[in-house]
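Hi V.,

Quick status before I head out on leave. The structure for the redesign project is tokenized and pasted below; the design run finished overnight.
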């Protein structure tokens, strides 16, 4: 074995100093820990859906339920685990169908409905991110599982390991590049808009809640996405809603046939976002037919004075403090079998 040289020792010390300095700097700016929202974390939670329905409830949907369900409050008041499988910007329908096709799943399931993505006209039955997560879950190896455990141990201690927000690729993605023909630059959300817990709950940081310029940045993204969604829908020759209703009803029936229970929830929105959703997706044409087709209970935030008044900082997701209040109210509306 070759002896360790002074140069190697100095290099190791330099690396440690640089890493420690970068970590201290990030923390001094107010940046908090956040876990990577990759396929590894999602698969870890997907594996937990087989826990007893008496001790765990599964949640699927898009980003709203990830912000609006306060998992600590849920677990404290119900004594049950919250298994969060929702995915930002994605319809829950493919995940619902995956659970329906899994004969081992017969648990309690809460499905959040954000109409713009739930009734999406996307031609692909499973979007890339969903397929990546599902494929990884069903094929992951023991070595990958062990690697996840080690990664978690490091992520839980070091802020700078936030791959989605602080890596070199993440910094490069923040560069403003104008759109060109056949090239579309996706909108960039501010780092403080989403800090992710190990349970996959999203939370706005205190800085985001205090900075209206950051809130306006996200509001502008919602306006853009609503406009783009309306343009895409206008180009579709057929209405995708009936086919989506059929897919959902079939999947729900499979889970119910095994003894599973399902509830649909509509989480809060406010401002122009809520106005646009009310106009584009009236309850009489979407929410109520969905409940009728599936024969499931539905909990709509607008029906309860305790939740109808919420003002979302960026029109679409609740602040951490309001998420606590919303979760308390939601628990009061769920069937007894879900919470006791």
């Amino acid at each position: 074995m070759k002896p360790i040289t002074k140069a190697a020792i100095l290099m190791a010390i330099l690396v440690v100093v640089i890493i420690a300095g970068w970590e201290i700097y990030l923390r001094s700016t107010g940046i908090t820990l956040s876990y990577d929202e990759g396929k590894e974390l999602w698969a870890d939670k997907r594996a937990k859906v087989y826990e007893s329905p008496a001790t765990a409830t599964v949640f699927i949907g898009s980003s709203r339920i990830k912000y609006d369900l306060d998992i600590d409050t849920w677990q404290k008041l119900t004594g049950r685990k919250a298994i969060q499988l929702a995915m930002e910007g994605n319809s829950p329908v493919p995940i619902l169908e995956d659970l329906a096709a899994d004969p081992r799943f017969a648990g309690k399931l809460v499905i959040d409905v954000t109409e713009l993505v739930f009734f999406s006209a996307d031609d692909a039955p499973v979007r890339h991110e969903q397929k990546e997560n599902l494929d990884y879950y069903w094929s992951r190896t023991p070595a990958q599982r062990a690697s996840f455990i080690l990664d978690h141990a490091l992520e839980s201690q070091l802020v700078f390991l936030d791959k989605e927000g602080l890596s070199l690729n993440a910094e490069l993605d923040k560069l403003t590049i104008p759109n060109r023909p056949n090239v579309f630059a996706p909108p960039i959300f501010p780092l403080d808009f989403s800090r992710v817990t190990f349970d996959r709950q999203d939370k706005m940081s205190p800085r985001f809640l205090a900075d209206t310029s950051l809130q306006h940045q996200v509001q502008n993204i919602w306006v853009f996405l609503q406009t783009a969604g309306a343009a895409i829908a206008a180009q579709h020759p057929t209405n995708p809603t009936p086919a989506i209703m059929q897919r959902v009803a079939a999947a729900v029936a499979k889970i119910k046939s095994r003894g599973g229970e399902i509830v649909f929830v509509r989480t809060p929105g406010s401002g122009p976002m809520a106005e646009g959703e009310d106009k584009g997706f009236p309850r009489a044409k979407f929410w109520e037919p969905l409940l009728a087709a599936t024969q499931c209970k539905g909990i709509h935030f607008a029906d309860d004075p305790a939740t109808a008044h919420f003002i979302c900082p960026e029109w679409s997701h609740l602040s951490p403090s309001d998420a606590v209040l919303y979760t308390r109210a939601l628990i009061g509306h769920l069937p007894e079998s879900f919470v006791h």
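Above is the designed sequence. The longest strand covers residues 261-266.

G. will cover questions while I'm gone.

Best,
W.
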